[in-house]
Amino acid sequence: MTSDAAPGTVPLARWEARSVSIGEVCAALTELRHNEETTATRTSVLNLVVAGDEPEAAARAASAMRRLGQRHPGRTLALVCRSGATDRIDASVELHSATTDGTPIWWEEVHLELGGRLCTHLASVIMPLLLAGLPTAVWFPSALPPPDAPLLGLADVVLVDARWALQAGSGLAALVELSRRHKVIDLSWCRLTPWRRLLASLFEPQALRPYLRGVTSARIAANPGPGRLLAGWLIDRIGVPGSAVTLEAATHASIHLWATHAGHRARFSVERPSDDPLVLGAVQVEGGPSRHESVKLPEHGLTWSLAQALSRLARDPRYDAAIRAALIFEK
Amino acid sequence: MIPNPLSEGLDTHRRSPPVAMVIFGASGDLTSRKILPALAALAARGALPASFVVVGVARTEIDDAGFAKMAAAAGTDPAWTKLVGRFRYVAGDYSSPDTFARLREVLAEVDEGAGTEGNRIYYLATIPAMFGVVAEALGAEGLARPIRKGAFVRLIIEKPLGRDLQSARALDESLHARFHEDQLYRIDHYMGKETVQNVLALRFANAIFEPIWNRQYVDHVQVTVAESLGVEHRGGFYETAGALRDIVQNHVMQVLGLTLMEPPATVDAQGIRDEKVKALRSIVIPTAQSVAEQVVRAQYDAGWVEGSLVPGYREEEGVDPASQTETYIAMRLSVDNWRWAGVPIYVRTGKRLPKRFTEVALQFKRVPHLAFSTSEATRLGPNALIVRIQPDEGITLRFGAKVPGQAFEVRSVSMDFSYGAAFLEQSPEAYERLILDALIGDPTLFIRADEVDQSWRIVDPVLEAFANGEPPLARYEAGSWGPAESDHLLGVDGRRWGDF
């Protein structure tokens, strides 16, 4: 995926204050909207709550959200908790506007820095700010939430990102448990779609289908989280034994499968060889034909995956099965 | 057939299987303007497999490389650029068996070299007179049937599907002589538009609209297909068509079918098309007398459109200076069924109108008793639901609201749903959607033979009346909303165009 550097959108209107009440934040939202004629017609599709206290994750999320607003107009609430401090809310509210294909749209961003006991009563802070009747997605951009995280109760869908949430050899059990209790969408899983789709397409010709049943080994190179998602997917989908899967660390994901059928060996590969946004797929049958396919990756991978997730807001049973299957890689 | 478990959950059902698409009329306008760009967009979206090949057929003498070069200009995505290298071309006359013998050889080579597995789609982007000729020649060469079990052969054709009921039936007969109905994919590009499909979602996925979508609540329906363009360089073609054949028989009838139909048992090809046919069958066939009273035909004179002075129709290139071809038509249709009995359906379409837009509007009956005084509700119109099909796709609901202030004044306000603002995912272009549907084998949005037949049954008596000079051809100034006769058509019923 290509980089997610923060786009330079300028807010239409802005309000900020320190040590305020949620009532004041709600009033500021209404006031800002009333003062802008262009925002008279509202078309909102969701609430997005971003829960992160790591500055790097917050910056990453903010950049993705800024782009996302042009695709999923709604209200974004970004929370940063400073536990240990006194009970306090520092807030800023921004109205953003953009024209996409000649259609003017707008969205709102609310940034809240919370201190003290408020961090353990997040639901009471957030609920008044949610747009009624719209789905609420709660995004944990870095670590997985603890099972009793107060925001989970507000979420119609929980967004996580295995790229950042899973460390080598750990974290999967917690992810499986989270997925059992909530509708989880993993942005890494969304971003891996081009790799999975390309690998699936390599087996589309009927003549190559029998190799699906003869996979003898697989090598997956990727970041630890996405790598295990791919491994679990292969184990679940085509029954590759876990012992036949080799996991390696790499910046860009790649999958290599070796398979036999009727005495012929074949190699199937899907890889992104460089920083260029292109994934290449290839099949080489020993003594037989070879096929090559490629797919261009979308720009701004994180925003794209977020948009994909929010377009569907649905659980993917293949993902649930993949993370369960990948538990064998847990130390 | 061995399944591919890796493809589950990946929307690969929206990906074409290996196939050779044969485009007849490959050097023509429709191919370069619509078909190749749609294919290029599909390739860029990853919807075409590596084993997808286009074989162009036309009389123009170019070779494979020349056709590949022409195709390459349709897109820049690497996936498309890579595909076009394999494209083939057969130069030849459609009336020559040799052309089809060579095509058969090329298709065999393509199956062998590119793995298209014997799957074929023929796209007839030719003049309509060639539809039957090409279908017959394909059949004679053994190309109309699958060469192996599990393979498919489909044929895509586009309007005009005949010039009247008789010629439409003759065309169907010639197609059915070589192809089964389920192999035929008749395109009406209106059906590929998201907002046309959204009529189904609006009506059958919501509990609030369908209960009032009937004669109890709807006063009348208006369908408008307005174009600001004239005939451009198609004067010669338009002279043989006119607004009735060009727009009403196909696009308007399809939109009406979706608007008037009963809820289908299932939202699939058979469910939807069965109900559309039923709805079209309920439209009262006009008589010579009703055409004279309920149809207005007109032709534009010179005038100003979108800031430019444009010539009159009879001054356009390729048009007879004494032409009687209608560039505007307005009709009042009636529907004989329980849902719509007594609800007039007003249809209008025209060229050189002030702006381009297509919409379906349901105007609702007024409340049985208005409790507000006339001075309090001077600006309160009837409720209306307007489905905007193009260009600003969306839905508008008009209702009365109190004007803020001390007095109790009620006036009409509009609540707008704009497709572009709510769903910012890029909608596929109509051709892109329909071509992929044909590649996948989903006929839901294509027109079945009985739909075409029903549409012509409604239009045929009007054509007959036109041939007899009835009603007289009215005139309108380019840039106006049509002739005064059109306003009168609604005026006698106490209604007005666009009055919602």
Could you explain how this protein is built, in words?
The complex is a heterodimer of chains A (about 325) and B (about 500). Chain A is α/β, with parallel strands linked by helices and about 325 residues long. Chain A contains ten helices and 14 strands. Chain A has helices at about 20-35, 55-70, 120-125, 160-165, 170-180, 185-190, 195-200, 225-240, 300-310, 315-325; strands at about 15, 45-50, 75-80, 90-100, 105-115, 135-140, 155-160, 185, 215-220, 245-250, 255-260, 265-270, 280-285, 290-295. In chain A, the strands form two sheets. Chain A has an eight-stranded mixed beta sheet, with helices on both faces. Chain A has a six-stranded mixed beta sheet with strand order 10-9-11-12-13-14, with helices on one face. In chain A, β13 and β14 form a beta hairpin. In chain A, α2 packs across α9 and α8 packs across α10. Chain B has about 500 residues and is α/β, with parallel strands linked by helices. Chain B has helices at about 30-45, 65-70, 80-85, 95-115, 130-140, 165-175, 195-205, 235-260, 270-280, 290-295, 420, 430-440, 450-465, 485-490; strands spanning about 20-25, 50-60, 90, 120-125, 155-160, 185, 220-225, 295-300, 305, 310, 330-335, 345-350, 355-365, 385-390, 395-400, 410-420, 475. In chain B, the strands form three sheets. In chain B, strands 16-15-14-13-7-12-11-8-17 form a nine-stranded mixed beta sheet, with helices on both faces. In chain B, β4 (about 120-125), α5 (about 130-140) and β5 (about 155-160) form a beta-alpha-beta unit. In chain B, α1 crosses α3 and α6 packs antiparallel against α13. Chain B is globular, with a radius of gyration of 25 Å. In chain B, about 45% of the residues are buried. At the A-B interface, β5, α7 and β14 of A face α3, β16 and α11 of B.
